[in-house]
Design a protein that fits this description.
By secondary structure, this protein is α/β, with parallel strands linked by helices. The chain has two domains: about 5-140, Response regulator (Rossmann fold); about 150-210, Winged helix-like DNA-binding domain superfamily/Winged helix DNA-binding domain (Arc Repressor Mutant, subunit A). It contains ten helices and six strands; from the N terminus they run βαβαβαβαβαβααααα. The protein has helices at about 15-25, 40-50, 65-75, 90-100, 110-125, 130-140, 155-165, 170-175, 180-195, 200-210; strands spanning about 5-10, 30-35, 55, 80-85, 105, 130. A six-stranded parallel beta sheet has the order 2-1-3-4-5-6, sandwiched between helices.
Length: about 210
């Protein structure tokens, strides 16, 4: 059976990652990398100007965080399949990505065969969940799930909380997300207030306990 060709846009800010993904996908006869983007703005421009079947999107992109880019992609082309490929574990961003319309979420530690299977699945308009993420979602649905404090954060607040907990300074985050230092400081204050936490050290401790970093 001949599979239809799946056209892919690889959106990741690391050239070596894009090259590695292209090499992996070149070994298939039905998946073609039709474009590459190294930042959020380029990703949006390429999706606006071209037709892709699937976007492979890194969650940590310059020119806007990955969740923000995902949200804009689904606004531009609501039916576009977006497979998030991230270095961050499922506990950190997967549920939020799915809520924003992602078709699936994989960590960069996944095997090439799993990546290829996920691309083929989401290209058909279906969802792809790793066994770990599927188990987590089933557990959350199957028990009385009390919302954790971080679940009340907005996507941007959650992103900044994770960056702070990973050791990034306000200036580091400002540079990474193309936001002013004042704006990042304001988000930090909101996070601490919503979480009822007084400082970065306690915030980091919370993130570690909840497998967010």
């Amino acid at each position: 059976m001949i599979r239809p060709v799946i056209k892919i846009l690889v959106a990741d800010d690391h050239p070596i990652v894009r090259q590695g993904l292209t090499k992996i996908l070149a070994e298939t006869n039905d998946i073609v990398v039709s474009g590459e983007a190294g930042d959020g703005q380029t990703t949006l421009q390429m999706v606006s100007s071209n037709d892709y079947d699937v976007v492979l999107l890194d969650i940590s992109m310059p020119g806007g965080g990955g969740l923000e880019i995902l949200n804009k992609l689904k606004t531009i082309k609501p039916h576009l399949s977006v497979l998030v490929l991230s270095m961050h574990p499922e506990e950190q961003y997967a549920v939020r990505a799915l809520q924003l319309g992602a078709s699936g979420y994989l960590t960069k530690g996944s095997a090439p065969d799993e990546l290829i299977a996920a691309i083929r699945r989401v290209s058909e308009g279906r969802k792809y969940l790793s066994p770990v993420l599927a188990e987590k979602l089933a557990f959350d649905i199957g028990v009385h799930h009390r919302s954790a404090p971080h679940e009340a954060l907005s996507n941007r607040e959650f992103q900044i909380m994770c960056l702070i907990a990973s050791g990034k300074t306000v200036r580091d985050i400002s540079n990474d997300l193309c936001l002013s230092v004042k704006t990042v400081s304001t988000y930090r204050s909101r996070v601490l207030q919503k979480m009822d936490i007084s400082n970065n050290a306690l915030l980091t401790s919370y993130a570690i306990r909840n497998n967010l970093v």
